[in-house]
């Protein structure tokens, strides 16, 4: 988790730093999504009785550690806000896709209209 | 959209009705009931003067259209929308409920072209205006503070207390999974009580209003209604005389712990106007 991603240019190159930060944000956002999926699956197995107490404890401990490492990595890379922002944007994309399926064109707000260019 | 009608943000060539020059176009704000041409005392888009062009008992509220709108400039678009809304409000004050037209709509040509466009759908426009007479649109936003909604969810579902207790009683590893289990259950329960609150609000508003629709989360009319805790956002077409009754209908909801009801209006009936771009048949 602590491997440095080298995209060249060094810290003094603003473009490379920005690229690196964007890449780290993207990777950590995806890691967060996978982590949450793992947690949901773990809870599902716990609720369904598939896991014995020892397995529950071990799995919970591992996921808690993973979550802490992700949080620490985001803090160290100073991308907490940008990860949260990207996650929000991804949620927005999904929401738009869902609402777009049954949207009534006549019910559009005025702000929608400026997209027609 | 007909040949003579276009979006002001389009770069497409305009048709040239009534001998107008190629660049002529009239920005269209809304349609009103009137028999006479007039000038409205309000600044239109790009501070242009606003005219009411009448034909067959209905009038189009227009001003000379800007050549283009910088649709990728948020400031330019908001400035246009504010001007659009300002003119629609002025028309509503002068003529009663207007039929708002989608922002950035323009008719190619001069005043005669506008009259020709309006005359072609005057019967439909008149019928819609008669139907909306004496009514206004009101916006109702019901918000619920997160903590209060969570408390209500606990009241409604005893299992949540048990799940919370299981988190506190478990060893560290299990506690982590129990915490996630509890959070997921709380989220579902909160969604359920919020859905019930939204349905209640919708039903109460519908009891007073002629028509109710849910609004999009982004408010293109007021620019100031983006509460993150909003449970439901409604637009209600209501008789002007029933305005007080609409507010009273939501008193019981507003009294609930952590619930805020925001009520704005009167607005022109933006959410209830037909789309006239296809010839005014409301489809």
Report on the architecture of this protein.
The complex is a heterodimer of chains A (about 120) and B (about 280). Chain A is mainly alpha-helical and about 120 residues long. Helix content of chain A is about 70%, strand content about 0%. In chain A, helix 1 (about 15-50) runs antiparallel to helix 2 (about 55-75) and helix 1 packs across helix 3 (about 80-100). Chain A is flat and about 50 Å long. Chain B has about 280 residues and is of the alpha+beta class. Chain B has eight helices and eleven strands. In chain B, the strands form two sheets. In chain B, strands 1, 2, 3, 4, 5, 6 and 7 form a seven-stranded antiparallel β-sheet that branches. Chain B has a four-stranded antiparallel β-sheet with strand order 9-10-8-11. Mean pLDDT of chain B is about 85; it is low at about 10-20, about 220-225 and about 280-283. The interface of A and B includes residues 40, 61, 64, 105 and 110 of A.
Catalogue the unreliable spans of chain A.
Answer: 104-117
Q: Tell me the greatest interface.
A: A-B, 30 and 38 residues
Summed up, the helix count of chain B is 8
**What is the SS-derived class of chain A?**
mainly alpha
How much of the polypeptide of chain A forms β-strand, as a percent range? under 5%
How large is the radius of gyration of chain A? 20 Å
How would the global form of chain A be characterised?
Answer: flat
The total strand number of chain A stands at: 0
Topology, number of strands of chain B = 11
The average pLDDT score of chain A comes to 80
Runs of chain B in which pLDDT lies below 50 for 5 or more consecutive residues are 8-22, 218-226, 278-283
Q: Characterize the overall form of chain B.
A: elongated
Major sheet details of chain A? none
Q: Which helices and strands, and how do they pair?
A:
The complex is a heterodimer of chains A (117) and B (283).
Chain A: H1 14-48, H2 53-76, H3 80-100
Chain B: E1 5-7, E2 25-33, E3 38-43, E4 49-55, E5 58-64, H1 74-95, E6 99-100, E7 105-108, H2 111-119, H3 122-132, E8 135-144, H4 146-156, H5 159-169, H6 172-208, E9 211-214, E10 230-239, H7 243-249, H8 251-254, E11 259-267
Antiparallel strand pairs in B: 1-7, 2-5, 2-6, 2-7, 3-4, 4-5, 8-10, 8-11, 9-10
Helix pairs in contact in B: 4-6, 5-6
